[in-house]
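Please describe our next protein:
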Amino acid sequence: MTESIQRARATTASYSITMRIHAGTDPAVIGALAVKVAESGGITTALDIVDSHPDRLVIDLTCSASNAEHSTEVVDAVETLEGVRVHKVSDRVFLLHLGGKISVESKVNLRNRQDLAMAYTPGVGRVSQALADHPEDVPKLTIKGNSVAVVTDGSAVLGLGNIGPMAALPVMEGKAALFKRFADIDAWPICIDTTDVDEIVRTVELIAPGFGGINLEDIAAPRCFEIEAKLRERLSIPVFHDDQHGTAIVVLAALKNALRIIDKKLADARIVVSGGGAAGSAIVQLLLAAGAIDVTVSDRPGLLNRDDESLTPAWRELAERTNPRGLTGTLRDGLQGADVFIGVSAPRILDPEWINEMAEQRIVFALANPDPEVDIYEATQRATVVASGRSDYPNQINNVLAFPGVFRGLLDARATDVTTEMLIKAADAIASVVTDEQLNPNYIIPSVFQPDMSKTVAKAIVDCVPKAPAKSIPMTDAN
């Protein structure tokens, strides 16, 4: 390697490209391609000769970049090599999404007339009549017992904002794929073309008979609060807003382990939360329910204070429950001597130097995605424990740790609602996976691929649900 090779940037598979390259037959071209990618800050993940001719090699070069602009820089750098031509560039993320990411598969074989007669008419009529007589058996004899509706209006999708229900569909498909992969739950994207609260609530009410649970996703605040409250009141199946409660569960789990590192109890920690929207409100509520006392919220007006009459109803409700010191001013004012910063707000709102003004041992969770509240590298130079929402740094706060197991438990227990106790127990279950021997500043939260992660969370949920006496018609009587 030459001295001119730069240190690779923090790259990610979400900006991964494959270049179809035509080059000469000089064997040195393979090494030259890898060097050129490295010089431009990319990382080569695969390099294959897919075809060979007397005067030409056809090469597929796959590499990761840090963003779309960086991908272009890598391609331009490769094209500067003499005798090398980039014939085509494929974005691997878009290739993965071609035709969608989920499908429906039958669980029964339909091989002959007998199979048809049992799976469909006339046999299915006996099952339908039995369920009309005994509706409590619907979850057992239909997909309802293992299905979740992933509902959105597309008004707050990831960091993209209000992009609408059709553009939100790939995200909802991804959510459904995660449900299947991590908890073997059949989830269905339901993208509703309205932002009217009553229309959304009524639509979900009408489709609810086919589902065992409702997962609200990427709906803007404060509308999401009203939708969730109305659906919980009207439906007899659990309603879970992952942007709120899933995030809160994982944040609480990670914070409990981070506090173990600095030897501080939750009740004794001074916590500042940046962002009073859906995620921030849920995090605050769960922290308080779990025993936190000194929590202050910062948003556009500054530190939320109950004496500020200009606050919106949602912010006022937060202010009434937080800021016991009566602090006023800016985020920086709130951070003076604080033990914990939790950001679910906007990029670059936390100056790295402000971290030095916190307590001697400090915890920074910068969770805005894709760009966090503070440069993560700068934060690690100043804080005892740092977490983010990104996969390219340690301690990723990822909702996948929570929602598959939560719904697995809700469905298995035939729960009718979601309680605060369940959320706290789920957080405890996630935190407990990290043993004392494993715990360190770079490992406060388990990987989403930790074996049995969903089962551990599911058991915690099931244990919270009162056991109802079993009642069901014998299968021999279903006629």
Observations:
- Residues 242-261 form the longest helix (20 residues).
